[in-house]
C-alpha cells in the first residue's frame, strides 16, 4: 500500500524509528477510516483509526465539537473558552460573556425581571434587586454561596433524585421521571412531571451530606407541544430524610409559597433568606399550569467554605508536580503516552488523562501542592482511549507532608474507599468528612473499568 507524503512523514517521525514498535501498531488499509483517518492494527488485529484534528469516533465519522458549539449561552451571550485562563471553574470549559441586562452562568437571568424572593419584593411597589451571578463552585458564603450544586452539571447523580409520583404517557413509552428534572435538559421527554392522580406531589434531592442551600432556579417544559410549569411551590428541608420542615413566610405564620414560572422555558430564581443547612431538599408544587412539570437547579455551597480548586484544571500546579507510579503508552509509543501531567480535570485532546501501565492496586497518581494546604475534597473523571471507555471506579486517598511518610485517609477508624466514576466523562465529587493538611496527595485506585485512567481536581484552601 502506498503511503501519502503526510502519512510517510508521520511514520518516519513517530512510528518507524527503531525500537518503537511493540507487537502492534502496523498500518492497515486507511480507506476503512473516514475523513483522512490513519488505520492502525492492534495486537489482536483490531482496527483503530487515528483521527485528524476536528474528527472523532471509532472510524473518524463524527465531527469533533468544542464546548462552545453549539453556543451554550442564552440571549446572544458570547461563549469564550477558558483553557488559558485561571478561573478555577471546575464544571465548565467556557464562560459566557452576557449582554447588558442579563447575568448568570449561561446569561439565563434577566436582571430586570428576576428578583430575590424576599417577602417585601413580592409587592408591586417594591424596588427590584437583581440576582447576582452564580459564583464558582466552593466559594465561601462571603462570595455569595450561590454555586450550582449539580443538577445541571451532573454532580448530583440520578440516584439522589426521587419523587412522590411520575407521569407515564404515550401508551407507557414516555416516563417523565425525577432524574430528568435537570435545568436545560433537552429531548422529547426532558423534565419531571407528577402523576395526574397525585394530590400532594413532591420532588426531592439528597445532597448526601449537610450543605448550605441558598436558593433554587426553576424551569418548566413542553409536553405534547404544550407548555407546563409550576406557578407556585413550597420548599421543605431535612437532615435525615424523615422529618421535614417547610420554609416559613416572613411573618412566621405559615409555609412560604414561592412564585414559579410563567412559561415553559424561562428561568425563575428564588433565594432563601436565611440560607438552609440541610441534606435533603423537597419542592412541593402548589399550583401548576396544565401539569406539574419541572426542571430545576439548587444553589448553595459547602458548609466549611473551603472547597476551591487547588490548581490542577487551571494549570496553577505545574506538570513537574504531578507524578505517578507508571504511565501507559498506546502502541508502546512515547508520542501516545498517557502521562501523569495529563491527569487534569476536563483535560482535552486525543490523549487527555493519566493511565497506569498496569491494572494493579499498586499504581498511584500523586500531586505536590507546593506547600501545605487544607484539602477538603476531590473530583475525579475517566477518559477514552481510541473509543474504549476507561475510569477508576473506586479509590483510596493518601497524604504526606514530606513525600516519604504516608497516611491513608480514614473515616470512623478504617481506611475510606471512595466511590469513583461510572463513565468516561462525568465528574464525581467526594468531600472529606475530616479535611486534612498536607503538601502531597496520592490517589490509590482500588477498582477500575478497562484500564486505570484518571483526571482529577483537588479541593481546599
TrEMBL record:
Gene3D superfamilies referenced in this protein's UniProt entry, alphabetically: Galactose-binding domain-like, Laminin
Keyword Nucleotidyltransferase: no
Subcellular localization, as worded in the UniProt entry: Endomembrane system; Secreted
Keywords associated with the record: Cell adhesion, Disulfide bond, EGF-like domain, Membrane, Secreted, Signal
S-S bonds: 51-60, 98-107
InterPro entries reported for this sequence: EGF (IPR000742), FA58C (IPR000421), Galactose-bd-like_sf (IPR008979), Neuropilin_MCO_CoagFactor (IPR050633)
Boundaries of every F5/8 type C domain copy: 145-301, 306-461
SUPFAM superfamilies: EGF/Laminin (SSF57196), Galactose-binding domain-like (SSF49785)
Membrane-related topology note: Peripheral membrane protein
Organism: Microtus ochrogaster
A Pfam family this chain is assigned to: F5_F8_type_C
Cleaved signal peptide residues: 1-22
Protein name: Lactadherin isoform X2
Statement: the UniProt record of this protein carries the keyword Transmembrane helix: no
PROSITE patterns documented for this protein: EGF_1 (PS00022), EGF_2 (PS01186), EGF_3 (PS50026), FA58C_1 (PS01285), FA58C_2 (PS01286), FA58C_3 (PS50022)
Major localisation: membrane
Residue ranges occupied by any EGF-like domain in the UniProt entry: 24-61, 64-108
